[in-house]
Sequence to fold (755 residues):
Amino acid sequence: MPSALAPERTRSPRSLLRQIREAMAVGDAAQARLDRVVRIIATSLEADVCSIYLGRANGELELFATEGLNAGAVHAMRLRPGEGLAGLIMRTGQPLALADAPSHPAFSYRPETGEDPYHAMLGVPILRGGRAVGVLVVQNVEERAYTEDEIDDLQTIAMVLAELVAGGELVGQDELRELDFAPQRPERIRGQRFAEGLALGRAVLHERPMAPERLLADDPQLEETRLQRAIRSLRAQIDDMMGGQHGLTGLPFEVLETYRMFADDRGWNRSLEEAVRSGLTAEAAVERVRSEHRARLSQAPAYLRERLHDFEDLADRLLRHLMGERPGVRPLPENAVLIARNLGPAELLEYDRTHLKGLLLEEGSNASHASIVARALQIPCVGRLAGLRDRVAEGDAVIIDGDEEQAHIRPRSDVLAAFASRLEVRSQRQAEFARLRDVKAITRDGVEVAILMNAGLGVDLETLDQTGADGIGLFRTEFQFMVAEELPRLDAQTELYARVLDRASGRPVTFRTLDLGGDKVLPYMEAEREDNPALGWRAIRMGLDRPALLRMQIRALLWAANGRDLRIMFPLIASVDEFRAARRVVDRELNWAVRRGRPEPATLRIGAMVETPSLLFHLDALLPQVDFISVGANDLMQYLFAADRGNPRVADRYDILSPPALRALKTIGDAAAESGTPVSVCGEQAGRPLEAFTLLALGFERLSMPPAGVGPIKRMVLSTDRDAAARGVAKLLQSSAGSVRGEVETLARKLNVAV
Ligand code: PEP
Ligand code: MG
Fold:
């Protein structure tokens, strides 16, 4: 053995890690390296025994290397799941230090190892991504108590071993596949569809366990300084967010408070510092501490496990501070399926859209803006997938099955084959929708329905022609603001709106003025913290209180129209006065533009979104003031049922196919018809065949929906007899049930409607 590799007797974990690193530089077989590593650890920790056990995929724990026990037991000795002290450590994910191991009730005597003479034992789990994948044990003949420092050092070493094993440095690649290093079994998780579609791709974790590129520090002093600096800037960022300075995508106050509590937590900080002092880089220290927390909290009661998510986020943020990451476009590999607990719309838009195939969420809700963005991007999204993040590893093959509302992780070959044939069927269906592209949506009894599209990004414009929509019923102007790194200027706004009108080539486009606030937060704009953002300072309320932004937007719209037809709509109007005030802003801007010689729009139509219940009781006053209205059913439902559309706990508590919701919609539709005011529905529901069928039955003839809805809704309209549908649905309005979804389905089936 080269002398440089002779194990040194040293109590310093840093020099021990250096020796391990040197051992890795030798081009030996994996097992020889592993044998050398246990020798180094035993020598430097003055232990009589050092053994490494690794978990097999079948749950057994196998002795992979030992210094001190019988060499013949290596690869021969296997413990059943939970067997013996090593099994206990593996199961609990916790270190175990015993002065006299044989007297512990879990001790299991295995004569083949020759461990009779040893009394003291210290074992730590080898953790990867918070899961115990093996156990590292040292033993001493004499009874002795191991110190906290020794326990800590062994944990640092275990973390390094985990990465070296996973990197194929200490076990062969074939063997690695047999180990339980990453979740390996195929899994199917059921959830909810947030955006329709099918996709197959590779998992990319949003909250990524950013594999520390350098585990071992060259200069520990420098690492400590980096860590301290990153913690300081993390704390400052959290304080900023709490103080309402530029926040990161609308985190609730309680979450921020928890963050601050953790960020200030002495235990957390001390663990990080100790990990760095033991010779890890700052990044590796964050990983190690995170992994230990995960292991500990995964055993905890459910309410504490919830906190784990906060810790994970915090660790991620700290890593991003360490890596000096700036907000901007986040690159993705090809065919990426993004995996996240939950996402804000702006976070989703940060990712490189050209490679993004789909989105899987552990939580999330259908009406949240991230789901809306997913639908706008036409990528499938399934959410509410329990335990998702613990069950997927970076790079795993995943199938998003929007139709069946489920995800397959590491699918078996038969699942893949079945999926391929469904893709085929789907593309045939898409071909059928494509054939409908130029067909007008007219019901069997002759009612022509306008099928409009919701849009908001430049990429949507492509889909306008592809789908054959009759126009854009809702252009969400705030999306441009959400993808930008700073406030889009007048010329950037004008340019986008002009491009939209160009592409629409005469088809109507309804531009909605900025609808920010709620869950739509701009990272570069100051926002005050609010207890109830959905009920807070958002949409037109902001526009009227800070009219400069609204004025600039109206100006951009007038310039972009440049003499063409223009339709402007205001979001979240809650009182007729608000509409009047907003309309005055347009009038003033129009006068100003005309005085400067700009052409007036050929026609200028100004409308209100009906998405607050208050308007239902003042439609007689509102309707004469507006040129059109559009029902924002997403928000209207949230306010009608007092259920936050972005909160998964309450998002399912109501059904739009329920008598109160349908009566509210009918009230609006009837009042508009009576006054001759054009009315559309532009919530997400308008894009779902069964819901759209019901809207049609209630009398709505203009529906605006996500692009993927256009084909299916056209097909539904073509197969519907509107009169018969209206008669059937009218009866259901009298029901006392909380939902009449089943009855609507039966009706649609009876009438042979394609839903
Ligand atoms: C709505 O609320 O229904 C709507 C269309 O607007 P948004 O989803 O953008 O709030
Ligand atoms: Mg709305």
Residues 13-178 form a domain with the Beta-Lactamase fold (CATH 3.30.450.40). The two ends are 74 Å apart (CA to CA).
